[in-house]
Design a protein that fits this description.
The protein is mostly helical. 62% of the residues lie in helices and 0% in strands. The protein has 5 helices and no strands. The protein is globular.
Length: 68
């Protein structure tokens, strides 16, 4: 499980906008939000996008389930 949807919402981005920032399709973002495994290179890009927007996140923030 991952927290991509929550991170995206915290960034104030739509799926389309996040997809553009990550260099992928909106469908890929949707699949990640639904629980598809996120490759480390995509996680790193997400961390970088968040940093540019002044939000610090880590790999743990991306990969740790809310229920954990």
């Amino acid at each position: 499980m991952n927290n991509v949807r929550h991170i995206r919402q915290a960034l104030g981005l739509s799926q389309d906008a996040l997809a553009e920032a990550l260099g992928m399709t909106q469908g890929s973002v949707s699949q990640y939000e639904l629980g598809s495994d996120i490759p480390p290179r995509v996680a790193r890009k997400l961390i970088d996008v968040a940093a540019v927007r002044g939000i610090e996140i880590s790999f743990d923030d991306i990969y740790t389930s809310e229920a954990a």
